[in-house]
Design brief:
- This protein starts with 20 loop residues before the first strand and ends in a 7-residue tail after the last helix.
- It is built from 8 helices and 30 strands.
- With about 550 residues, the protein is of the alpha+beta class.
- A hairpin with a 2-residue loop joins strand 4 and strand 5.
């Protein structure tokens, strides 16, 4: 509650439309630009809700705010309206609803707000900039957007096609004084940057999230690489040995440094960040996979230079400093797919075991130099010129022949349990629901028909009954092998059990693929149980 301070004027008509005069109040990336409309005399509309903290005589601290609650916070000597996103200890992550920015504040910087102020919708609205798809986000680009707001805000004209449902995903912004499009300024800024600043590696932009674009650097064909990880022929992680040697000292200094200057952030999926891992004892560069399903204060992170995954607390996730950004130090771990092996079953235990034996080996990476998507069709050879691709092809030949025979000869079995009935593949037009989203090329779905849901629920009850009532053996750490089918305690729903297949072992934990959901998890050995044949053979198809 504020004393001796008048409430801001009520604000109406906050929706953006073509031709509006707007101000760019925050820039995250080219798809997350926050605008506010202008009020009379081309003053930013949100000025009424941003108050100089020195002018407030008295204010009441908000105790134990709840997630999603609207309140006021102190940030950079000003008072802003904010929405609570999360809490960890005496720190809160909040979203400043009038400028579109995520920040962290302490408990003594969170204050009460009047109902009148609380009921006014947030004044910052998110848009994406048209024509910026291939631009890199550099310090110069960030400074350009910073100058559009700070000191004297620059009025802009919003141009968009209102007939398009997603019109705000691609807008043009022109300066009010001369109608100059800011995309032209950004193109000039980016064209002045060196296109060959990291040895002779060619960048291929994958997406534009983070404080530096996520860049997939072209490894020269014939380069020596270290095999870091592989669980199928389409998901192999390698690291160029020469490039790693060039940047190893920088990464080691970052890992072992104090890094007191790092700023905590509220991360977004696919964002490149800095993290502190207690498990791996140091600071690392990482990409955000997404929040943990069982604890939203923890985020699953893929370590960019070492090909391992860890769950990191929100308070240990930081903005990636420019000195370690992907524009300064390229992402060293590359995901590649082996050429000529597209028909190989990704769950083939012999292939998984073979790939596991390659971890740490030095290999030669080759591909067609004319190919744009080179990383989708590589050939790996050992130092004696033995082709890994051909070895895997030989390994799978007997298996594929056997499967052709199995398809020709179908032996009917007695149906002892209605749950064993195979589920037909999902057809076009079927009702489905998403069980797991990995990326736009990897979405797992399941039949959402009433019959299927009833069958799946029965199966889950059968699993719970079996593991709750029987003296089920926990699998011994020493007996667990890559490719084994097991049962694990689900992290998606702690009271449920989930069928899974072991993909990899990382220290004392196992990375498993959840067969009925499509996601991967890290589980401890004590949370892994033997899977009986009668539960293993029940089929639930997802796509």
């Amino acid at each position: 509650m504020l004393i001796n301070l008048p409430e801001p004027e009520s604000v109406t008509n906050i929706e953006l439309k073509n031709g509006d005069i707007v101000f760019c109040c925050n820039f995250e990336d080219f798809n997350h630009i926050y605008l506010c409309k202008s009020s009379k005399n081309t003053i930013p509309q949100n000025n009424n809700f941003i108050i100089d903290a020195s002018k407030i005589k008295d204010i009441t601290i908000k105790k134990n705010p709840k997630r999603g609650e609207i309140l006021k916070v102190k940030y950079e000597e000003k008072i802003f309206r904010a929405k609570v996103l999360d809490a960890f200890g005496k720190m809160y992550t909040v979203f400043l609803i009038d400028i579109g920015k995520n920040i962290s504040v302490s408990a003594d910087e969170v204050f009460e707000i009047s109902n009148e102020s609380k009921n006014v919708p947030g004044l910052a609205q998110k848009v994406g900039l048209k024509g910026a798809k291939d631009l890199k986000i550099t310090k110069t680009v960030k400074d350009y957007f910073h100058n559009l707001w700070f000191n004297v805000p620059v009025p802009l004209i919003l141009m968009c096609d209102e007939d398009n449902f997603n019109c705000f995903n691609e807008v043009n912004l022109k300066r009010l004084n001369n109608e100059h499009d800011i995309i032209d300024d950004l193109l000039n800024i980016c064209n002045t940057l060196s296109n060959d600043n990291i040895n002779q590696l060619k960048p291929i932009v994958q997406n534009s999230k983070s404080n530096g674009s996520s860049v997939h650097w072209r490894i020269p064909s014939g380069e020596h690489v270290e095999f870091l990880f592989g669980n199928n022929v389409e998901n192999i992680h390698v690291r160029p040995i020469k490039l790693y040697e060039d940047y190893k000292n920088i990464l080691n200094e970052f890992k072992n440094g104090k890094n007191d200057h790092l700023k905590t952030i509220c991360p977004k999926t696919n964002e490149n960040v800095a993290v502190y891992s207690m498990k791996y004892n140091g600071f690392y560069r990482a990409k955000i996979i997404g929040p943990c399903s069982d604890d939203t204060s923890m985020f699953r992170c893929s370590f960019s230079d070492y090909s391992f995954i860890d769950s990191i607390s929100l308070k240990h996730i930081f903005e990636l400093p420019i000195s370690e950004s992907v524009n300064t130090v390229p992402i060293l771990c590359q995901r590649v797919s082996l050429a000529g092996l597209t028909k190989i079953n990704n769950n083939n235990s012999r292939v998984i075991s073979y790939l596991g034996q390659l971890v740490g080996n030095t290999l030669i990476l080759e591909y067609d130099k004319k190919a744009e998507r080179w990383y989708k069709q590589v050939i790996l050879k050992d130092l004696k010129n033995l082709s890994i691709n051909e070895e895997i092809q030989k390994l799978c030949q007997p298996m594929s022949q056997q499967r052709r025979l199995e398809r020709k000869i179908v032996i009917p079995e007695k149906k002892e349990n209605e749950l064993v009935k195979p589920i037909h593949p999902i057809k076009s037009g079927s009702t489905v629901y998403i069980t797991h989203f990995e990326n736009f090329n990897s979405i797992f779905i399941r039949d959402a028909s009433h019959e299927f849901i009833e069958s799946f629920n029965k199966f889950n009850k059968q699993m719970i009954k079996y593991y709750k009532s029987a003296c089920v053996n926990r699998s011994s750490n020493k007996l667990l092998n890559i490719g084994d089918k097991v049962c694990v305690i689900s992290t998606l729903n702690p009271i449920m059990y989930c069928r899974a297949q072991i993909k990899d072992k990382i220290n004392d934990e196992f990375r498993v693929f959840c067969i009925d959901y499509g996601n991967e998890e890290l589980v401890c050995a004590e949370d892994i149980f033997e899977l009986p044949k009668e539960l293993e053979k029940v089929c639930f198809i997802f796509v």
